[in-house]
Structure formats: C-alpha cells, structure tokens
C-alpha cells in the first residue's frame, strides 16, 4: 500500500485498513492523523503475540494534547492494547506510553517522559505483545514494559489510534515478537553531541543490532559498511547526514562517523539504514564558539589541585580550581588535559551533555552513563576527567577555555587557563599492590575516587582474592560500577563522614541499567548511583550512598542509590542509603544489618531470592513531587514461590522530612504494593517491627486501594505472600492489626518456622548449601 491516506475530523469513527498486510518498510506510505475525537485505523486479523510498528511524527499544529498509538489485539473500538506517543504542541512535552482500552475506557499502564525535539522528527514506535508482557520500543530501544492480564490473549486487529493534535505516521507493520527491532545509534553514547567550531573532528563508532537486511556496500558516497555487523553476520550500510551542512559536515566510514564542526549553532545528524526507513536515529549536535584562554593577570599557584608541578599524583585525580567567591558556569567551552611530552589530547571535559564509560580501559563490559563532570563546592570547582583516561607515570598539562567559568581569581576576571600558565602534574608511576587500597579526596592515598579503586580491583586483583577499599571521610561525587570481582569490601572511616553522592535518575539514564559491550548502541548504564553485576560477597560497611535526584525535577522519578544486579551475595552494615524512589533494588541474596534506608515510593524492591533487613530503620520521607504523599515501602518481584523474598526483622519504620522539607501525613504510607505480575511473587514479611503513625491502619495496598492490583498470592499464607507478626508502635506497644487486609497475620510458631534466624532465611543459597552471615564474618 503506497501513497498517503488522510484520516481526520470528529466522528470519523472506525476506518478499516482493509487491504493491509505486512509490508516491507521501504514500501510504506504515510498517514496524516489529526482527530478531534478518537480515530482508529485498524489492520486485518493478527496473532495474539507479535509486534506492531510504525514511524510517528508529532506535528506542532493547533492546540491541545495529541496522542497516537500503534495498536495490537484489537477486538473492537473499545478493547485493545496500544503503545505510542503523547505530545503537547504548546509545551513541547512528549511521553512514551503503554495503554489499555477496555470497554471504551483508556488506562495508561506505563508512562515515560522524553524531551521532544524541536524539528518535528519521526520516531519509530513498536508495541511488542508477548504473553502478558507488553513492551514499547522507541527507535529500536526498549523503553519500558508492563504485565497486564485484563484483556484476553486472543488474536486481533492491529493499526493506529489517534486523538487530539496531528501526527504523521507510516502504515503499521506486524511480525513475530521474537524478531527484535533493529537499532542504529552511536555506540555506548547518548544521541547528543557537544562540539566546538574548528576543533579536531571526532571519529565516533556507530552500532547496529537486530534484524537488518543485507545491503549492497556499493550504495554510494557517504554510505559505510559497519565493522560490527548485526546478528547473523549480514553487514548493514547507513548514511550520515547533517541537517545544516553549513554548521556540520559528516562522513560515514567503516562503522564510524566523523564529525567536522564548521560553525557555532545547533543542528542534527541523521544516521539511517539504506534498506529500511524504519531504522534510523537522530543525533542532536550543539556546536559552540571556540574561545581559547586569554592572557590573565592572576597566578594559579595555590588556586589549583593538583598543584602546579606536583608529583606522585593518583592517576584518577579530579581537578580543582579555587576562586575568590563561588563561581558560576559560563557560556560554554571545555577543559582539556594534554600529555605534556608530545601535546597529545588525552581528555576533553565539557560542562554539559557529557557521558562516561565506567570501568577500566579494555574491560569487556563497561557502564555507559550520562554524567555531570563539573560540580561546584562553595568557591571550588571540581572537575572529573573521564574514567580511566590518565595513566601512571605520565606528565599532564591542563587548559581551560575562556568562558567556561564566570568568577574572579586574585580580584581579576577569570579568562581561562592557557598552556603557558603551566598547570602541569605527574601521576604516580607505581601501581598499588596488595589487597588493601585507600581512597581519600584530599589526603595521602592510593586513589582519589572510589571508582578508581574499583577499577584497580577489577583489573589487577584475582576474582577470588579479598580486597578491602578503605575510604576516608569526604564527599565523593561519582557514579560507581563493579563487575566480575568477588569479595570486595568498601569500608568507610565513618558512616556520616563518607558520602558517595550524585544525581542520577530515570530521566537522565533511563532504566535499571546494565553494562554494555563495546558495540552496544546508545546509553544503557541506568539510573542507580552504584551498579553491581556478576559479583559475590560485596560488603558495604560504615558509609553513606545518596542519590540526590528529586522526584519533582524533570529528570526525577525512579532513582536507585544501589542496584545489586547480581545473583550473588551482598552485605550492607552500619550504612545509610538515601533517595526518594526505588532507593534499593536487589537481586540474589542480600543482608542489610543496622542500616538506614530512606525513600518515599517503592524504596525497597527487586527481582530477588532473599533479602533480610535486620535491626535497621526504614524512613519514609516527604515527597518532593506532590508535597504530601506517604508512598510505599516495598514492591517485591521475588523469583520463585519457595524464595523468602523481602524480610524485615526487628526493624523500625519511621518518617521524616524529605529533600524539600515536607513531612509525611499520618496513615499515608503502605507497607507494600504489588506490580501485579503473575510471573513473580509478592513475598514481603514484617516480623517484630516497630511502626510509626505514618503507616496506614490497613497496612497493605492490595486490590481496591488507590487502583493497586492484587498481589500474588492474593492473600498471604504461612509460607507465601504478604505476612506480618508482632508489629508494635515506636514505643514497643502492640499494634491493633484488626484493619489489616490481604495479609497473613502469623502466629509466633509460624513466624519462627519461617524466619527463625539468618541461616533459615538464606537456606536456599547455592542450591541449598545455605549462607550464615554474621556481623564479623560474611560467609
């Protein structure tokens, strides 16, 4: 079916796309959908499972919000599933959504905010239906998913559903859910690039994954065969085109794109498959003016760290520049680190749009994240070079462009740091040895950053050899990553004195996240401060990890302090963890002993086996997003019916002010809510815990409470589901549990049989070998 079809106007009703069958993407035409009332353009009968995909473009016409969804399992106009975009032309706000239409009522099952581009670009949207799981993809990237059993799993129609403001769309295509979408993007990088006019042209790797059709490498100029061919071995070819060639010239070459910044301004770069118009990505490119440092009347001596000419500097050192008064960020520019012996550029650090690969150089999997490398601490600017760029035994030179910072030094306006200013330092030649490493942000130590020490442990210490990283008091503004190394202990000098603190959230680094191989497209390192993969017996002792993201901010929402994404064992003791939403996410087996965990929404959760929270505090804090809500403590997605899930033993449930100062109302907090999945278990137990007045009398947010789904199982039993025993108020007086719902109130005998000691709770570890941690010994 070729050409364009226009469907518009109120009361247009249901239009059958009668002749529609799966089309090659190259043959698709476009549909203009602009409806004041919902309009459905439906396809023919399809299978119950599969995908529906279309290219959608929100148009900035008219007023009011518009929505366009690709639709699957369509039974009639009032019953179907969909995924797509919501867009408001007035504000430019866009949302990626998964929805359900049931008996004519539309429910948004999942929403994910995205910044809409200003150039009316297309987005390839795919709805994947696989059993009870619904997933949405944007330009080949899996954005989010949800489980829903409301509508029957039956074959149905497919097509498009629109309401409100106008969209352009390609005719939808369908296929097997097992056939994942192809994706074309910059490798392990965000789809936004910051450059400066006239600087050296960067050569960036391009990645492609998925079911690309084989293409002719002789397709013409500006087309390249990528070095990292997708699964199946067939090469792909792509074009690289700048929207404004006066600002940017792009050349595709052997799996890379080289960008030549010609003049200051903003444009976009489109990477597009030659064979399939549904496979493309758009990279925003911002080009600033080049402003080298100017002659200055101030001296740097005493104002910079490392000091001028300093030797024996840890090779993960941040750079510090101290002003007369607190400075502000300027109009742009960059900080550069050059190797002094030959002038080679080692690192370029900008104040916006930055990303990093956490881990050591050459590591098979690294964590790719957006980050803020420049932070203000009073009158000091702290500049973090990219991970693992500096080497032992090298001398480096630092320059700072004019305009990066606005402030004064020695009473003079800051005009940058020129090469002639002589900000040089030499890194320590010897690599630390032994199983004990030290970290200090300003004193004598092996490393200046926690990640620097983790990189060393992963790279230079055998997997099974225990390593202790002693962290001295200080504030460490960094994201962390550990993979493939067992028996690592992070031990702080004091619990409140060692603070690992950064801002990370779903709007900045979407999803729970995972490490990525070298050829992976896009950014996937996730929203946690500390991501741990493939590690056993990690110990976090006497320290604080804080995710300072606000739920009220545009980047806010889900924001873990810790994501233990390993099937191994985690020990956290005498430690504190702060965030607002999803503070702790765990898999495998974990023991939290005398810890403080603070948050507001689902701030303990995960697809785990067994997690014991013993003699600790769970503090519900005021919600910055709405100023009043009490939220939920736990959302369990425990993997098996015989796993213990989340167990809270002899702990205190308290409340306090949140990051914007508001406290939690009485009776506004729920012990747990369910994700509503049939494939995981809601195993949550509170045993002999003291609870403040913020806990709701009904306790558990089951079906019928604030539109929450029923847990699995729907009602707890002695060995499964939601369970509670021995609950008290904060003064130790027994609570009246008569209003509790959806929960099994255990007898003392049942509580002892299920939770009578750590060995019983962790008995399932190692296929029944068990685990008996103690405060002095982890094994």
Number of domains: 4
State the CATH topology of the largest domain: Pectate Lyase C-like
CATH architecture of the largest domain: 3 Solenoid
Instruction: Provide the low-confidence segments as ranges.
Output: 1-28, 213-233
Q: What general form does the structure show?
A: globular
Keywords: Aspartyl esterase, Hydrolase, Signal
Domain Pectinesterase catalytic: 438-701
GO molecular function: pectinesterase activity
Family: Belongs to the pectinesterase family.
Concise description?
With 779 residues, the protein is mainly beta. Helix content is 3%, strand content 44%. Belongs to the pectinesterase family.
Write a structural description:
The protein is about 5% helix and about 45% strand. The protein is mainly beta and about 775 residues long. The strands form 11 sheets. Strands 1, 2, 3, 4, 5, 6, 7, 8, 9, 10, 11, 12 and 13 form a 13-stranded mixed beta sheet that branches. β19 and β20 (about 255-260) form a beta hairpin. Belongs to the pectinesterase family. InterPro entries: Pectin_lyas_fold (IPR012334), Pectin_lyase_fold/virulence (IPR011050), Pectinesterase_cat (IPR000070). It comes from Pseudoduganella namucuonensis.
Which helices and strands appear, and what pairs or packs with what?
Blueprint: E1 4-8, E2 14-16, E3 30-42, E4 50-58, E5 66-76, E6 79-88, E7 93-102, E8 105-115, E9 123-130, E10 133-138, E11 141-147, E12 157-170, E13 173-175, E14 183-186, E15 192-196, E16 203-209, E17 223-225, E18 237-242, E19 248-253, E20 256-261, E21 265-273, E22 280-288, E23 304-305, E24 310-313, E25 319-322, E26 328-329, E27 334-339, E28 345-350, E29 354-358, E30 367-371, E31 374-377, E32 380-383, E33 395-400, E34 405-406, E35 408-409, E36 412-413, E37 424-427, E38 436-439, H1 450-460, E39 467-471, E40 474-476, E41 480-483, E42 488-492, E43 498-502, E44 530-533, E45 538-541, E46 544-547, E47 562-565, E48 569-573, E49 576-578, E50 584-586, E51 588-593, E52 596-599, E53 601-606, E54 608-614, E55 617-621, E56 632-636, E57 645-649, E58 652-656, E59 670-673, E60 684-687, E61 690-691, E62 700-701, E63 722-725, E64 728-729, E65 744-745, H2 748-755, H3 758-761, H4 765-768
Parallel strand pairs: 1-3, 2-3, 15-22, 24-37, 38-39, 39-42, 40-43, 41-44, 42-45, 43-46, 44-47, 45-48, 46-49, 47-50, 48-51, 49-52, 50-53, 51-54, 52-55, 53-56, 54-57, 55-58, 56-59, 57-60, 58-61, 59-62, 60-63, 61-64, 63-65
Antiparallel strand pairs: 3-12, 4-9, 4-12, 4-13, 5-6, 5-12, 6-7, 7-8, 9-10, 10-11, 14-16, 16-20, 17-18, 18-21, 19-20, 21-22, 23-25, 25-32, 26-34, 27-28, 27-33, 29-30, 31-32, 33-37, 35-36
């Amino acid at each position: 079916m070729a050409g364009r079809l226009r469907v518009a106007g109120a009361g247009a009703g249901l239009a059958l796309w009668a002749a529609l069958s799966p089309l090659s993407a190259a043959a698709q035409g476009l549909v203009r959908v602009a409806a004041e009332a919902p309009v459905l353009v439906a396809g023919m009968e399809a299978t119950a499972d599969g995908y529906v995909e279309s290219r959608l473009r929100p148009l900035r016409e008219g007023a009011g919000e518009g929505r366009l969804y690709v639709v699957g399992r369509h039974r009639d106009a009032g019953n179907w599933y969909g995924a797509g975009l919501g867009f408001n032309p007035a504000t430019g706000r866009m949302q990626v959504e998964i929805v359900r239409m049931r008996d004519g009522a539309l429910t948004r099952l999942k929403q994910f905010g995205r910044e809409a581009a200003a150039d009316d670009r297309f987005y390839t949207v795919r709805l994947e239906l696989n059993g009870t799981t619904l997933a949405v993809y944007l330009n080949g990237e899996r954005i989010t998913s949800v489980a829903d059993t409301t509508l029957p799993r039956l074959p149905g129609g497919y097509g498009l559903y629109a309401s409100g403001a106008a969209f352009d769309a390609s005719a939808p295509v369908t296929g097997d859910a097992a056939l994942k979408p192809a994706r074309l993007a910059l490798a392990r990088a965000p789809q936004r690039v910051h450059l400066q006019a006239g600087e050296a042209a960067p050569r960036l790797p391009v990645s492609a994954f998925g079911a690309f059709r084989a293409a002719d490498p002789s397709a013409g100029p500006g087309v390249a065969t990528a070095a990292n061919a997708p699964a199946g071995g067939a090469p792909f070819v792509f074009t690289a085109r700048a929207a404004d060639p006066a600002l940017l010239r792009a050349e595709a070459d052997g799996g890379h794109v080289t960008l030549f910044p010609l003049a200051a301004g903003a444009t976009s770069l489109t990477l597009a498959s030659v064979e399939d118009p549904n496979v493309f990505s758009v990279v925003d490119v911002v080009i600033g003016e080049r402003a080298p440092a100017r002659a200055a009347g101030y001296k740097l001596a005493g104002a910079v760290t490392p000091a001028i000419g300093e030797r024996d500097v840890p090779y993960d050192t941040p750079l510090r520049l101290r002003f007369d008064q607190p400075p502000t960020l300027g109009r742009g520019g960059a900080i550069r680190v050059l190797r002094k012996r030959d002038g080679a550029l080692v690192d370029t650090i900008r104040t916006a749009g930055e990303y990093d690969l956490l881990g050591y150089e050459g590591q098979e999997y690294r964590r790719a994240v957006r980050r803020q490398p420049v932070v203000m601490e009073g009158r000091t600017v702290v500049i973090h070079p990219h991970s693992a760029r500096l080497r032992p035994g090298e001398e480096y030179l630092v320059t700072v462009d004019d305009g990066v910072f606005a402030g004064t030094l020695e009473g003079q306006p800051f005009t940058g740091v020129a090469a002639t200013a002589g900000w040089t330092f030499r890194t320590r030649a010897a690599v630390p040895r032994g199983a004990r490493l030290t970290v200090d942000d300003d004193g004598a130590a092996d490393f200046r950053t926690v990640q620097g020490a983790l990189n060393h442990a992963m790279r230079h210490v055998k997997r099974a050899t225990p390593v202790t990283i002693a962290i001295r008091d200080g504030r460490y503004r960094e994201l962390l990553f550990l993979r493939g190394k067992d028996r690592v202990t992070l031990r702080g000098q004091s619990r409140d004195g060692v603070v690992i603190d950064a801002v990370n959230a779903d709007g900045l680094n979407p999803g729970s996240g995972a490490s990525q191989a070298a050829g992976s497209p896009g950014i996937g390192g996730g929203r946690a401060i500390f991501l741990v993969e493939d590690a056993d017996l990690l110990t976090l002792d006497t320290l604080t990890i804080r995710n300072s993201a606000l739920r009220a901010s545009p980047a806010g929402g889900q924001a873990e302090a810790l994501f233990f994404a390993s099937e191994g064992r985690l020990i956290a003791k005498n430690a504190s963890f702060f965030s607002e939403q999803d503070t702790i996410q765990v898999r495998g087996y974990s023991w939290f002993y005398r810890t403080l965990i603070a948050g507001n929404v689902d701030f303990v959760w995960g697809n785990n086996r067994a997690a014991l929270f013993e003699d600790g505090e769970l503090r519900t804090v005021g919600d910055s997003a709405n100023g009043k809500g009490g939220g939920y403590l736990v959302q369990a997605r425990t993997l098996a019916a015989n796993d213990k899930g989340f167990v809270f033993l002899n702990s205190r449930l308290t409340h306090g002010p949140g990051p914007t100062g508001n406290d939690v109302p009485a009776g506004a907090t729920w012990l747990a809510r369910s994700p509503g999945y049939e494939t995981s278990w809601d195993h949550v137990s509170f045993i002999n815990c003291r609870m403040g007045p913020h806990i709701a009398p009904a306790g558990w947010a089951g079906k019928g409470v604030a539109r929450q789904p029923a847990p699995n199982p729907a009602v707890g039993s002695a060995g499964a589901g939601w369970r509670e025993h021995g609950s008290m108020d904060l003064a130790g007086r027994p609570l009246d549990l008569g209003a509790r719902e959806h929960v099994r109130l255990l007898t003392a005998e049942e509580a002892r049989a299920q939770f009578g000691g750590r060995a019983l709770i962790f008995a399932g570890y190692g296929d029944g070998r068990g685990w008996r941690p103690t405060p002095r010994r982890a094994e």
